[in-house]
Amino acid sequence: MSALSSTLAPPGRRSVNPWLVLTLVCLAQFMVILDATIVNVALPTLQDDLHFSSSSLQWVVNAYTLVFGGFLLLGGRAADLFGRRRLFLAGVVVFTAASLLDGLSTGSGMLIAARALQGLGAALVSPAALSIVTTTFEEGKPRTRAMGIWAAIAVGGGAVGMLLGGILTEYASWRWIFFVNVPVGIVTFLLAGRFVPESTAALRHRSFDLAGSITVTAGLSSLVYAIVKTQDYGWTSGRTLGLLAVSAVLLTAFALIETRTREPLVRLSILRTRSLTAANAVMLVVAGGMFAIFFFATLYVQQILGLSPVEAGLGFIPLTIGIVAASGLAQALIPQVGVRNVALAGTAIAAAGLLLFSRVSVDGSYLSDVLPALLVMAVGLGLTFVPLTLIATTNVAAEDAGLSSGLFNTSQQVGGALGLAILSTIAANATSSSLDGIAGAPTAHQQASALVDGFQAGFLGGAALVALGFVLLAAFVRRSDVVAIDQADGYVPADAPVALAPVTPVEDAA
Predict the structure, then answer these.
(1) Which of 180, 243, 248, 330 lies 20 to 30 Å (CA to CA) from residue 221?
(2) CATH 3.40.830.10 for the 15-199+261-489 domain, yes or no
(3) What is the pTM of this model?
């Protein structure tokens, strides 16, 4: 790795345009987020071609998101310890190689394994990229602008994935939804190696917390697997309870390891920073609800409305455009009404969008059932992700930039994986209940109606998760927690005292 970094190190110590740095890391982040959703439109084709069962199909998504989420903390801390640019480049290499293996897969097992490896590459790229952004831009309007672009990429990339996945699946092959990453990864690697500067944190110890990484990843994996398998075993079965117990033991062991290690994966004292902890809790549940759009809405427009993969992808263009526009709106509103108020408005609107989605019907149409909900969701997500990203990265010392970025990305990815597992279970149970109430063999229309009952339940569950995010945000993020952001952006509440002291970052308890 040292040879790699020395070969590609930017010559001399010349200054680099921060907006060029932002462009390059956002290109990699776009590729990472794109891949979390690009497979959704291709799921029906993948299921037929590689002979996936209905219950195992979601692992095409979850194998990626779970490993991504499980290793993000290690990736974030490794970026602080060994160099953010170095980990960023290593992640791009792993991600690109795994994408090639995805496209070459000959069976369901190979694809799931390659998707897991791809998630590992993403876990190195994403926190390193976000910490590069936070250390490149000072808190205030420049960082708000940078985070607005970052958030638009983070959410909009998922929507673009729907369109690109549809085009590639219909006109080329599902394999090209993975092959397309290879040239992008190579270009990103070469340009980032040339122009992105290196940075490391000033820490006393420089060692990996391997035991912590293993226990937290295994614990989260056990938790998601237990939830997914409730479709087969039920919530009160011995197997489900056993898996949940294993998860609890592993996560408890992780917490104990973190209190006794010289350089923990997660220094638990950082969780005393309320803005960081609250933003992560909100992201956890909001991401869980957001995944309902990409999973259930994609299946609805193809399996019920009969849209082709390309038509389904085109149908999600308003979501992409709306998110980008709303992210720009969020940047303009934060200096006017404050970062906390914008986040509250965003989560409320996003929850309303999912409630609109829960009205889909078996005899519905794209214009009446899908488009209005997509537009409302776009505004909600754009107004949510920009302020949440700012809140999660404020009040954090520079040496913890990678750790805080890893925590935030972990909340997003694990929240998405857990949310998808929970909502898929709810949807499957609702569909089964509808079919159980039919005497004799169900007709095609009755089967479609039962599927829609499941989609409706999934959307309602997603709305409940996002609404919970609103409640957590309102209850635990106070004005004093975000004063550094608001002051830097020029916002002063009408009832604020004459002078507000900036919040002091939490010091390293070690």
Answers:
(1) 180
(2) no
(3) 0.76
